[in-house]
Amino acid sequence: MSVLDLMNTPFVLPEKYRQMTTAELQQRVREIKETFGEKLYIPGHHYQKDEVIAFADDTGDSLQLAQQSASNKKADYIVFCGVHFMAETADILTSEEQTVILPDMRAGCSMADMADIHQTEAAWDVFQDVFGDTVLPLTYVNSTAAIKAFCGRNGGATVTSSNAKKMVEWAFTQKERILFLPDQHLGRNTAYDLGITLDEMAVWDPVTEAFEYDGDINNVKVILWKGHCSVHEKFTVENIKKLRQQDPDYSIIVHPECTHEVVQQADYNGSTNDIIKTLEQAAPGSKWAVGTEMNLVARLANLHQDKKVISLNPNMCPCLTMNRIDLPHLLWALESIKQNEVINEITVDKQTANDAIRALERMLVRA
């Protein structure tokens, strides 16, 4: 979405929704859900607030929810409770007859925004000059539709945190090198686990338009885009050291979007679903410090009261952009449907969608 589009989008929540009590908001959401029945589908990402998750028809990660939206043929309206790139993926995968809505258009993702399509295309020209036709682009699904489409056009694919290893292995059967967008940490941690050394990885800074690398550039196998998750980067080695000193009985599990140093010092690392499953299967009485988004950590602590579950960073805040979606915004979106005045519709142009699907399909056939 361009800056001009953002400026012309009605972001401001009508005051009446701010004046409603929680009970009134909840009752109105329930009424509208009952009215629309199967014609309305509300997917909710794991990181959403409990007040929103309470009304979600399904809870999951971004790609899972987009796929479930696409498979839900009875739904005319998909009110996606996540962030912008997730709703884009849902629009790409759903039919033209289905309408995808984001309750608050300000719910973006700082990581996804760190890979701008214009910067990426300019960088690609540099990579072709330096390395020739030896680079295959891979993008984390936490990226814009434009970046997914770029990978689709250039023989690349998308990856998730669950299948990143499998996709990186596949990429190296296609080309000598890979470009990993937009999260450098997931790219670094994945490549390292596959035996690629740190000195075989270079970071590309799209702002300075230069490599961050001291060695012979010809030795580089992985180009890491200089992007990161603002939530997961806040977990530190110091957090781990302090916890181990205070209570060494804690097992530490972190998301691979955390820095390489944190992942290496943690006991376990894995995708959001891996973290959820690990805690489900953990022994009663066990202690867990979790390095991921705070809403999910709090929900896991509540679900597993037979275990001790805390955040690895005691000062961690929830994802601010994800938390822009709240109960008032959800009701606003639902009432707009009821009044035939749909707000915050997410649409991806056909060409971009077709190219992005190519990148997604190259992953899905190997998932």
Short description:
This protein is an alpha/beta fold. It contains 17 helices and 15 strands. The protein is 44% helix and 15% strand.
Supply database-style keywords:
367 residues, alpha/beta, Rossmann fold, 3 domains, six-stranded mixed beta sheet, four-stranded parallel beta sheet, 44% helix, globular, disordered N terminus
Structural topology:
Layout: H1 3-7, H2 15-19, H3 22-36, E1 40-41, E2 43-45, H4 50-53, E3 58-60, H5 62-71, E4 77-79, H6 84-93, E5 99-101, H7 110-113, H8 117-131, E6 135-140, H9 145-153, E7 157-159, H10 164-174, E8 177-181, H11 184-193, E9 201-205, E10 210-212, E11 222-225, H12 237-246, E12 250-254, H13 260-265, E13 268-269, H14 272-281, E14 287-291, H15 294-303, E15 308-311, H16 327-338, H17 350-364
Helix pairs in contact: 3-16, 5-6, 9-17
